[in-house]
Design goal:
The structure holds two protein chains of two kinds. Chain A is about 35% helix and about 20% strand. By secondary structure, chain A is an alpha/beta fold. Chain A has a single domain, classed as Rossmann fold (3-Layer(aba) Sandwich). In chain A, the strands form two sheets. In chain A, strands 2-1-3-4-8-7-9 form a seven-stranded mixed β-sheet, with helices on both faces. By secondary structure, chain B is α/β, with parallel strands linked by helices. Chain B has two domains: about 210 residues, Rossmann fold, CATH 3.40.50; about 120 residues, 3-Layer(aba) Sandwich (Rossmann fold), CATH 3.40.50.920. Helix content of chain B is about 45%, strand content about 15%. Chain B is built from 13 helices and 13 strands. In chain B, the strands form two sheets. In chain B, strands 2-1-3-4-6-5-11 form a seven-stranded mixed β-sheet, with helices on both faces. In chain B, strands 8-10-9-12-13 form a five-stranded mixed β-sheet, with helices on both faces. The relative contact order of chain B is 0.12. The chains are: A alpha/beta, B alpha/beta. The interface between A and B is large, with 36 and 39 residues. Strand 2 of chain A pairs parallel with strand 7 of chain B, so a sheet runs across the interface.
């Protein structure tokens, strides 16, 4: 019998703790498939965030080093500078990367650190229970924006990945989602390309993944996936934000 | 000095952010590390520097950052992680006056922060306090060895005075990195072994408690083996000054002065601030009843001295905060004031004996 689907080698056989309908488990799988397909498991180092994915080391079967909240790319910089032949990725949420870690991500991009950031944007602080994130949409409810996010009071959602485009050292930035199987395939392509950018030493790469959080959005998983695709993409449009690779011209 | 000593100790990675009075170190390292095939990164903040240090330490490198007081405050989060993750790294604090922005003059007001941990959680940082250029060089070399030996952050606590001083120094030979013991805990890829994670997140209370006690056992071992101090003219001393770093140099000048006047005064100079030389200070109180703690602060180490003597001797304090550097005359005046007050003079002793006064 021909095997047509299997667990990626770079994922441990542990049961994930993520809520039903959460996008993290899909994104974990895409990253692990990428590591397998590029044959880099033995020289890949991951840096998990503080947040829902803090336990990512229970799932990725690669060496991992934990960073303080927001500091993942600074830790990744230290790792990569010592081990330039290794592949280093961070896995960060929106609060981690676009609020507390804004300075670190902008300067890592500007230095053109040869690392890859997987940026999971679900518009909320999931682990702490659904507070407003820098990416929370206007009008969206959170536990710290009763009545919905108000731009005049709370500021508008921040498009971090777009901001990174102006940094000279950022080589490849793309926004994707895991809202439908078709989009998941595109997300996989983007993640693989981002790792390839690193392998080719072209510079800093980020894949922002719009991901549903049914628990904190207080929606059913189906409604949350629908909302991700219909509402989040209005403010965070999908597609390539920056690409200096020239891969697609070949 | 600090930079060259670090390079000779095998440090090939330096991450830092400019702050006065320690800019000479990153400036030196930026060029020197290029010569030896190392890496220098000027980070966007001290937060970033210390986290780059974490990453490099995870990968097994000998790594250092330096800063001054306000910058060290920003690094406290990272230092707590270094301690929790049991990562070796060297951090030098060229202390300046505080609190807040304070000033850029030499001070010793970060003693509490350095020796109490500074960041969150139950942990200790090994703290070395050099008081000369040669010692700064020697202790920097030693700092890397201690960090590796105990898998713990080591802080060198200096001040701007030491940073700006010129003294002849004999540099040790460059160590060969290949001679260092292999580290079997680093994250360098899971080739030929199961994958490994370096964590300070231990969600189960019992597991974190066990980790805390493991750290305590390590700290006990450091205390037993690494506590270090200098004794200066203690043999006949009736009063002992306790001071470290630049203050200890000033105190030595003051002691020479009062010795020439016949006062029997010595100095005990802690070279490790944590672990603190409590035991030798305690033993001192079997024969000496008068201690004078001298610091360039409003009084921080004095609390450790008081704990060490546990009421068995009188502990006086003299300090000048704010970056003021006291003169040896000023300190000599304080020494003699307490000396006379306690009736330690030979003549008075003799008079008391003859007069039968207790």
């Amino acid at each position: 019998m021909k095997k047509i689907f299997e667990k990626p080698k770079s994922l441990k056989p542990n049961v994930m703790h993520y809520c039903p309908g959460c996008g993290h488990s899909i994104i974990h799988r895409l990253v692990a498939e990428t590591i397998d397909e590029l044959g880099i498991q033995e020289r890949t180092l991951g840096v998990p965030p503080a947040g829902c994915a803090v336990l990512a080391y229970n799932y990725f079967d690669v060496d991992m080093g934990e960073a303080p909240h927001g500091r993942a790319v600074a830790v990744a910089t230290g790792l990569k500078r010592v081990l330039p032949d290794h592949v280093v990725f961070t896995y960060q949420g929106d609060g981690d990367i676009a609020a507390i870690g804004t300075a670190e991500i902008i300067h890592a991009a500007n230095r053109g650190e040869k690392v890859t950031a997987i940026f999971v944007n679900n518009g909320t602080y999931g682990m702490t229970g659904g507070q407003m994130a820098p990416t929370t949409l206007l009008g969206m409810n959170s536990t710290t924006t009763p009545g919905g996010r108000d731009g005049a009071r709370d500021g508008a959602p921040l498009d971090l990945t777009q901001m990174l485009a102006v940094a000279e050292g950022s080589a490849y930035l793309e926004r994707v989602t895991v809202a439908t199987p078709k989009h998941i395939r595109q997300a996989k392509k983007a993640i693989k390309k981002a790792f390839q950018v690193q392998l080719d030493g072209l510079g800093f790469s980020v894949v922002e993944v719009l991901s549903p959080c049914p628990t904190n959005w207080k929606m059913s998983p189906v409604a949350a996936y629908e909302w991700t695709l219909q509402e989040m993409t209005k403010i965070f449009p999908l597609g390539v934000i920056k690409d200096i690779t020239g891969y697609d011209e070949k | 000095m600090l930079g060259e000593a670090a390079v000779r100790a095998g440090c090939r990675y330096y991450f830092g952010y400019p702050i006065t009075p320690q800019n000479e170190v990153p400036e030196y390292m930026s060029g020197r590390l290029l010569e030896v095939g190392g890496t220098f990164v000027q980070a966007e903040s001290e937060l970033a520097s210390i986290n780059m240090v974490i990453g490099a330490a995870m990968a097994g490198a000998r790594v250092m950052t330096t800063s001054s007081s306000p910058g060290i405050s920003l690094m406290q989060e990272g230092i707590s992680y270094l301690a929790g993750l049991e990562l070796p790294a060297v951090i030098a604090n060229v202390v300046r006056g505080g609190p807040g922005l304070g000033n850029i003059a030499p001070a010793q007001s970060d003693y509490f922060q350095a020796t109490r941990g500074g960041g969150h959680g139950d942990y200790r940082t090994i703290v070395l306090a050099p008081s000369s250029c040669q010692e700064l060089c020697d202790l920097t070399m030693k700092a890397f060895d201690l960090a590796d030996k105990y898998r713990n952050p080591v802080m060198i606590l200096g001040d701007g005075m030491m940073g700006q001083m010129m003294e002849p120094v004999e540099f040790p030979e460059m160590i060969d990195l290949a001679d260092l013991p292999a580290k079997d805990w680093t994250i360098t890829g899971n080739q030929g072994r199961p994958s490994r994670a370096l964590l300070s997140l231990l969600l189960t209370p019992k597991v974190l408690e066990d980790h805390n006690y493991k750290l305590v056992r390590k700290y006990d071992a450091v205390t037993r083996s690494e506590t270090d101090w200098e004794e200066y003219l203690l043999e006949d001393a009736r009063q002992v000054v306790v001071a470290y770093g630049t203050a200890a140099r000033i105190a030595k000048g003051a002691i020479k002065r009062v010795r020439s006047m016949g006062l029997k005064v010595g100095l005990l100079r802690p070279k490790t601030l944590w672990p603190f030389p409590s035991q030798p200070i305690k033993e001192l109180t079997r024969i000496v009843r008068q201690l004078l703690v001298f610091e360039m602060s409003t009084g921080q180490m004095v609390e450790d001295v008081e704990m060490a003597v546990a009421g068995q001797a009188q502990v006086h304090f003299y300090g000048r905060p704010g970056g003021v550097i006291p003169t040896p005359e000023e300190v000599a005046h304080q020494i003699s004031h307490y000396y006379y007050q306690a009736g330690l003079m030979d003549g008075e002793d003799e008079a008391k004996r003859r007069g039968g006064v207790a």
